[in-house]
C-alpha cells in the first residue's frame, strides 16, 4: 500500500484449532491517521494456505490495546505468537519459524501477510548491520581494550533449509569461497536451489522420478535431499515410492514373460497372465497419482507366489546340476 507505514503487526494462533491464524495490522497513513486491519488465515499442514473473510473478533471480544500486546498475550482462544511495534525498543523479538519465508514457503500464497513480514525481515537485517557497526565503534573508542582477536565468521543459517530471500544479496561478503572449502566439488554439487525453483516443483514433476531412489531424484531435480523430503510432505507423500514402483515393474515384467511362454501352449493361462499385467499396470498408475497408497494385498500375494516359484526353479536347477555331476563321476569310475 502506497503512502502507508506499518507501525504494528500482531500474529495470533488459535489454541483449539491450531491451523487458524489471525493477524492485526496497524498502518499510519500519510495524513497522520491510523488504520487497523484484522485478517484470518488457514495454515493447513497438508494443503496450501489461504485467507478467509473475517470480522474483527479480537477487538470485539474485549477492548484490545494493540500497543500493549506482546508475545504470550491471550485473548480468548487466541494466543499471540509474534508482536512487532515500530515505536518500541526493541521493536520485536525473534521471528517464529512459521512466519519465516525461508522455513515456510507456503507464505507466498498469502501476500497480504507476507508483504508486511518482508518489512520486518528488512528491519531485522538492518538491525544486525547497525549492531555490528556500533560494536566496532565501541571497541575503537576503548583505549584500554585488549588487542582484537581474529573473529571467525559463523554461519547462523541452518543449511537444511533455504536461506532468507532478503539475504541473497550479491555483495562479496555474502559469497562463500568455494576454493577454500576442503571439498570444492561436493560443495558446488550441494548448492541449494532458489526459493522460486522449489516452489514451482509440482507433483506431476515428481512422478517422473518415482522409479529411481530419492537421492538420485534430488540430484536430477537440482534440490537438496532435505528440501525434497519437505516438498514430499507438502504433497502428502510420507515415503518415497521408489521401492513400490520398482517392485511393480518387476512383477509386470515377470507376468509378461509368463504370458509370452504360455501363449502357444495354454491360451487360457496366457489370457489370465495378460489380465494380471493390466491389473498391475493400473495399480502402478494409481500409486503414481496417490503415492501414499500401499501395494494391494492381492499384489503382495502374487509377488510372494512368484518369489516361491523362482526359489523352486533355482533349487531344481541346482539339484539337476548335482545329479548330472554325480552321474558323470560314476561313469568315469566304471570306465576306469
Automatic annotation (TrEMBL):
Keywords in alphabetical order: Coiled coil, DNA-binding, Nucleus, Transcription, Transcription regulation
UniProt KW Signal keyword: no
InterPro entries attached to this UniProt entry: RKD-like, RWP-RK_dom
Coiled-coil residue windows: 245-290
Pfam families reported for this sequence: RWP-RK
Domain RWP-RK: 183-268
GO molecular function terms noted in the UniProt entry: DNA binding; DNA-binding transcription factor activity
Biased composition (Low complexity): 317-336
Chain intervals for the UniProt region annotation (Disordered): 166-194, 303-336
Cited PANTHER family: PROTEIN RKD4 (PTHR46373), PROTEIN RKD5 (PTHR46373:SF12)
Record's function text: Putative transcription factor.
Protein name: RWP-RK domain-containing protein
